[in-house]
Amino acid sequence: MEDTFERSIAALDSVFSFVGRFSRECNLDDSAAFSLTLATEELFTNFVRHNVGGGEHIAICLNLENGCLIIRLTDFDVDPVDITGENPVDVHAPLAQRKVGGLGIHLVKSMFDSLIYDYRDRTMRVTAVKKLEGTHV
Predict the structure, then answer these.
(1) Between the ranges 80-84, 85-89, 125-129, where is the mean pLDDT highest?
(2) What is the 8-class DSSP label of residue 94?
(3) Of 60, 55, 46, 57, nearest to 77 (Cα)?
(4) CB neighbour burial string for 100-110, b if at least 16 within 10 angstroms, e if fewer
(5) Residues 91 and 8: beta-carbon distance below 8 Å
(6) Which residue would you say has higher pLDDT here, 112 or 91?
(7) What is the mean pLDDT of the chain?
(8) 125 class by beta-carbon count within 10 Å (0-12 exposed, 13-18 middle, 19+ buried)
(9) Is 65 helix (H, G, I), strand (E, B) or coil?
């Protein structure tokens, strides 16, 4: 399932509706649906806030393939920003010693088996893949 969304935080309601429809159509359990929603929101929000340049829309593609949940976001006409290479967040450090930012991507990395960055011809793609157990579908 694929759709495009306005490059705006205001588009999150439409993104959530899209993700919810996919979750229902694929009969995802609550845990898988939660992971999907959190990761899609985090990646979309990062694209909107941090990608320099950018066209009017961001594409989101959701798939359930060979027991894997796949999220792919594509941003067009942007400068390269590899969010997948950010340093791990020390969640055990006192709050006063933590830097601002990075926790959302840390959560996505901890919930998904892989987070893949690809950049070519001013087009950025980030793909998150999560292997699902039989209880998730």
Answers:
(1) 125-129
(2) -
(3) 55
(4) eeeebbbbbbe
(5) no
(6) 112
(7) 85
(8) middle
(9) strand
Domains of the chain: 2-136 (3.30.565.10)
5-12: which pairs have CB atoms within 8 A and are 24 or more residues apart? Answer: 5/44, 5/57, 5/58, 5/59, 5/60, 6/56, 6/57, 7/47, 7/48, 7/54, 7/55, 7/56, 7/57, 7/58, 8/48, 9/45, 9/48, 9/49, 11/44, 12/41, 12/44, 12/45
Q: Could you tell me what percent of the chain has a pLDDT over 90?
A: 64
* Furthest C-alpha separation in the chain: 43
Residue 61 CA, chain-centre distance (Å), reads 10
Q: Residue for token digits 């999220």?
A: 71
* Closest to 86 (Cα-Cα) out of 97, 72, 102, 100: 102
